[in-house]
Amino acid sequence: MIQDFFCNTIKLLKREELVSYQDGIPKKTYKETTKEVPCRVGKLNLKDFKDLQFLSKIADVDILTRKLFTSAECPLEVKDQLIWEGKTYKVIYVYEAQAKAGVHHKRSFIQLVE
Q1: pTM here?
Q2: Is 50 exposed, middle or buried (0-12, 13-18, 19+ CB in 10 A)?
């Protein structure tokens, strides 16, 4: 099922847009937070693709298809970025995966940002 499997850490960067008003004029500011997320990373055989989302309680990265699976404890949003192995990835799509065996996961597609 999994080849070249190893544990790693990804850094999750969240950027929240805050809007305040001065004299009726909106002013945008940004609040950035960083969180270290433990994850398990592996090359996945395509026929066993669905198995990846059940391997870790926190996050799984499929380095072949650049898909990331996270638990509810580590939700992702479209504007989030991930730093993993010195490369920066941007979340481009997030949707809820089907829950099986009482495990709730959010599946996220990430795209390499260069």
Answers
A1: 0.43
A2: exposed
